Amino acid sequence: MLPTIKIENARGDVLNLTSDTRYEVTAAGTAPPVATINTSKVSLNDGERFNSSTRNTRNLVLTIHIVKDVGRSRLELYRYIVSGAYIKVYYKTENLDVWIDGYVESIECDEWTLGQVMQVSILCPFPFWQDMTETYTDASNINSLLQFPWSAPAAGVELSSVDTDAYTVITNKGHVESGMRLVIRATVRTLQPKIFNLATGEWIGFTVDMAQGDILTVDTTQGRKSVYLESGGVVTNYINTIMVGSTWLQLAPGENEISYTVDEGNIHLGIYHMNKYQGV
User: What is the pTM of this model?
Assistant: First the structure.
């Protein structure tokens, strides 16, 4: 199956370059991005010592052959591909349905040739491909006690219980670490919620007093780290409530064991994450 490639401009207009018979498209720069390895020389030792590494900006290049109604089709492309402007590229195969965004660095097209070819260079500051939608996991440690057939006595019946020793397995299907969006809703008055990554021992906690129905939203994604409390319809920046010793938790590729505690009360914990791929 050949990849399906679509482009979207800043206004949200989408052009399917694969299905549109006016164009034939190929893409280069879809493999894993180049990394920069930082090392330092250690006196009297052979070689160097590794310090850190970072993945560089992706340079994605689309080569578009204009095969029908050349003049009009070229002008149509300029509606979607604007030099220096934002662009989003969708890439779908039988195994992946992903997207990446960036900015148009250059557009090259020789208007005086019979078989016109447009080459579009796109710089993607965030170099990873991402799933079309976020993955949601209900991470509340709640065991259902409801069984059928059943009857409710006059004094009432317990429908569920909280298992404080439980954890939720979240699978990151991507190739690289992913941040999370933690949506913490207090089901009763709740004090000091903490979220744990049991595999690494890392945690993030908050010195907060949440009333029933309050929602604390925490984003640990690179470039979007934030903490907001919604209470009574009012949203307030609560990043200063992060406890000393906290870590902006990340999901490693594969299975991750996530749990939580509260000093008092209970919460419903929903976790959203985006699978990210180094190449397609």
Answer: 0.84
